[in-house]
Amino acid sequence: MRRRLYFMVSDVARARRIRDELLLARTEHGHIHVPAQDGIPLEGWQETTVLQKSDFVRGAETGLAVGGGIGVPAGLTALLFPRAGVNPRPVTVPAFP
User: What phi, psi does 33 have (nearest 5°)?
Assistant: First the structure.
């Protein structure tokens, strides 16, 4: 299982010490990413991507799980217990060539 560790430090020297300790603990260099303000020198470090800064993947997984968890039971309930005057029927969608 992979884990993410986030460190908030006040200066570049502390960030370098943390990076050195992670490298001594056998963390691969490619797995260390550094988010920083514009203008901070990050020579030799991998900067975080937009997806890592926003945590988009985790949010998409959570949204899919919550949406599916609510949408499937709600859809089944709508099919099994229709409102008065509504007649739900299965629809076949033709495949496009």
Answer: -120, 145
